[in-house]
Design brief:
Helix content is about 15%, strand content about 45%. The protein is mainly beta. Strand 18 and strand 19 form a beta hairpin. The termini are far apart.
């Protein structure tokens, strides 16, 4: 295993190592790459051995079957692969980059697809929050390994509090088998791929933080006041009409 990993150049691409997921579901896997690969073709390669893995999907060629999709965010230097219609088995993949005239670069990861509840999962793999506010992620787990919260390509928080790339993080396990992570004081630059980890298993989570829409709330008391004034005006007009109408007979 380690011999062919070294050939693939693990220091140029960063991704998860092992993900547990339920059969029939979909999973998105982010792959962070170095700046020299910005304009290169990226692809997902399926197979345990790097030198014999087979193309699944590439950034310059869509998968007609619909099982795989891939996108490349050149600004963040992350390409993301989504695998659909997962079946019950252990599958080996590589995040890979084409290099003309040389051996392609790749980083290995494994999907452990089970028919039952995954050993580590989140309620939603993509979550939206608002800048300046807080957001909470619940990581459900079934084992007793060390839990941590990480940002892709950055640092991890392993204790009850810390920060990931400057974002304040608190974590606790007040409920059995639920690792709860709260990020506060959210900034636009905190958007991106993070993950929960338990031992050697991770589950990626994409967080998107935007400005909160400005909404105007209507106070129902204002409506009551307006209706009261309108009713008063109608009463006064009726009174004046009554006086003028009956004044003709005097």
């Amino acid at each position: 295993m380690f011999e062919f990993v070294l050939v693939a150049g693990v220091h140029s691409i960063t991704t998860v190592s092992k993900v547990s997921v339920k059969a029939g579901k979909s999973i998105s896997i982010p792959c962070l790459y170095e700046s020299q690969y910005i304009n290169h073709v990226k692809y997902l390669c399926e197979g345990y051995y790097w030198m014999s893995c087979s193309y699944a999907v590439k950034t310059n060629k869509a998968d007609p079957s619909g099982k795989y999709s891939i996108s490349d965010d050149k600004k963040l230097k992350i390409f993301t692969m989504t695998i659909n219609q997962l079946v019950h088995k252990i599958t080996d993949y590589w995040c890979a980059v084409e290099i003309d005239g040389e051996v392609d670069d790749g980083q290995y990861f494994q999907l452990s697809v089970s028919s039952g509840t995954p050993s580590l999962y989140v309620d939603h793999q993509r979550i939206t929050g608002y800048i300046g506010e807080s957001i909470t992620i619940r990581c459900h787990h079934s084992n007793s390994g060390e839990m941590k919260w990480c940002r892709l390509g950055r640092n991890c928080v392993t204790g009850s509090s810390g920060s990931t790339d400057g974002a304040a993080v608190t974590a606790h396990m007040r409920h059995p088998n639920v690792f709860t992570v709260t990020m506060s004081g959210l900034r636009s630059k905190d958007s991106g791929w993070h993950w929960c980890a338990e031992g050697d298993i991770q589950i990626p989570v994409y967080l998107n933080f935007t400005e909160k829409p400005i909404t105007t709330s209507f106070d129902p008391r204002i409506l009551i006041i307006l209706l009261s004034v309108l009713i008063l005006i109608v009463i006064v007009l009726l009174f004046i009409w009554f006086i003028l109408r009956h004044g003709k007979y005097y």
